């Protein structure tokens, strides 16, 4: 197994060569590691300050609750089934059982929901604002309707840095 930045595959691109945007929660260990690993990978990194993840993290905004609800229900069903040990205690799930629980919960989250979750958090390749109508309510209310979008990528980058830092 390898970490996200330690795999050979991380630097390999099979599609059009373009810059990438990686959005990470701000944590000292992630900040330093990301900056070092991505320095030459044509990847821009945006760090989300603590306390902002419920507003701008796609998982928190759109699909983590249904995922966890499904996982909880699958786990509860296992417990209700009541498999026991020879001493009468509840049998703990095997590693494969846990993998199956997580797999079933993840299958309950559609690809469309995951893709849309990024747009709901304002993480989009449409820099012209054409997808801003998909922002979730809390984020949309934080952005004034008259906010003009910058026209160059440098000004976009500067505005994002000013916004988050």
UniProtKB/TrEMBL annotation:
The GO terms describing molecular function are: nucleic acid binding
Q: Which residues form the DDE-1 domain?
A: 15-118
Q: Which organism is it from?
A: Haemaphysalis longicornis
Protein name from the UniProt record: DDE-1 domain-containing protein
Its taxonomic path starts at:
Eukaryota, Metazoa, Ecdysozoa, Arthropoda, Chelicerata
The UniProt entry, under InterPro entries, shows: DDE_SF_endonuclease_dom
């Amino acid at each position: 197994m390898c970490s996200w930045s330690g795999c050979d595959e991380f630097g390999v691109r099979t599609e059009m060569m373009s810059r990438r945007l990686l959005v990470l929660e701000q944590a000292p260990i992630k900040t330093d590691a990301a900056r070092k690993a991505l320095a030459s990978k044509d990847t821009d990194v945006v760090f989300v300050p603590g306390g902002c993840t419920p507003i701008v993290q796609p998982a928190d905004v759109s699909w983590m609750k249904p995922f966890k609800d499904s996982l909880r229900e699958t786990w509860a069903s296992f417990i209700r089934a009541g498999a026991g040990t020879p001493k009468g205690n509840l049998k703990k799930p095997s590693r494969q059982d846990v993998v199956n629980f997580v797999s079933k919960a993840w299958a309950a989250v559609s690809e469309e929901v995951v893709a849309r979750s990024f747009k709901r958090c304002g993480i989009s390749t449409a820099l012209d604002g054409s997808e801003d109508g998909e922002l979730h309510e809390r984020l949309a209310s934080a952005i004034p309707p008259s906010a003009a979008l910058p026209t160059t990528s440098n000004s976009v980058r500067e505005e994002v840095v000013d916004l988050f830092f």
